Amino acid sequence: MATTSNPVKIGLVGLGKIAVDQHIPAIRNNPALELVAGCSPQTRPDGLPGYDDMQAMLAAHPEIAALAICTPPQVRHRLAMEALAAGRHVFLEKPPAATLGEAESLRARAAEKGVTLLASWHSRFAPAVSAARAWVAARKISNISVMWKENVRQWHPGQKWIFAPGGMGVFDPGINGLSILTRIVPDAVIVKKADLHFPANCDAPIEVQMDLQTESGVPVRAEFNFLQENQQTWSIVVEAEDGGKLALHLGGTELEIDGRQVLKEPEHEYPGLYAHFHQLIASGQSDADFAPLRIVADAFMVGKRIAAPDYIE
Ligand code: NAP
């Protein structure tokens, strides 16, 4: 078992926005982990030994015990399969893969190799999520809404992969809302209807409206929009049969109960995720829940495709 004098040595695969903004500082601030190197076709952040690809990085640093795959989803499965085949623990950025089939093959391969697989959902580590889960568990719920509306030009500049096949379009942020939803409700969430708005020049939707239902019959309305200007919305509202109302705002950093703010904390999701990853490795376990990805896959299966204007970056 790794200790602070024997930290788990980590390599990063894909050195884009999320790796630089979150993974590098979260690993460096956790004394039980050691960031050894990173690889990416072109990007080379300062102060980190960098390689063109994962195999070159592992050849130079065979001491790396765990790999965090922070690439776009389209290439995640191949890289994660190689990492598992090489006997490394794997941290998958969200979404865990481009398809459910890929995700399930990773879960099976990790179990076969006896290594840890973490299918990470960073939004589940937002500060208000566990309080929301407890509130929901104590009540009979009558209605839920998930509103995830942000400006793609502000948050994803230059990320061509997001509108390419397998990039998921507005489901890329929307799946974060679904990851909180599937954490706070106790039963499975089923897709009843989905309207998927595809710009003519994109292979993934820019706007989505879904009618979902929990297995116990609670209706859930989900609306995702990638063209939201000014106020950005990352909110979930839950209404209970007793008249109670819970609202999570700003991705789960703020919690309101019956209209009164009861929690407001800065986000610190990635430190929590890496502590969880370390704990999983230390206890020889995996955490690979694909419920949010299943909702997205089902929406593509039953969804109606609606034409939207071209997306001009
Ligand atoms: P990004 O800025 O486009 O970065 C992706 C990186 O992956 C790029 O640096 C690219 O390399 C690298 N890459 C592509 N193919 C690779 C390969 N075969 N091997 C190694 N590296 C490869 O995207 P991002 O925003 O960081 O998002 C990446 C993932 O994190 C997505 O799944 C996204 O949903 C998730 N995520 C993003 C955010 C966010 O706020 N941005 C938040 C949470 C989760 P080069 O630059 O070297 O060409």
Automatic annotation (TrEMBL):
<feature type="domain" description="Gfo/Idh/MocA-like oxidoreductase N-terminal">
    <location>
        <begin position="8"/>
        <end position="117"/>
    </location>
</feature>
<dbReference type="InterPro" id="IPR050463">
    <property type="entry name" value="Gfo/Idh/MocA_oxidrdct_glycsds"/>
</dbReference>
<dbReference type="InterPro" id="IPR000683">
    <property type="entry name" value="Gfo/Idh/MocA-like_OxRdtase_N"/>
</dbReference>
<protein>
    <submittedName>
        <fullName>Gfo/Idh/MocA family oxidoreductase</fullName>
    </submittedName>
</protein>
<dbReference type="InterPro" id="IPR036291">
    <property type="entry name" value="NAD(P)-bd_dom_sf"/>
</dbReference>
<dbReference type="GO" id="GO:0000166">
    <property type="term" value="F:nucleotide binding"/>
</dbReference>
<dbReference type="Pfam" id="PF01408">
    <property type="entry name" value="GFO_IDH_MocA"/>
</dbReference>
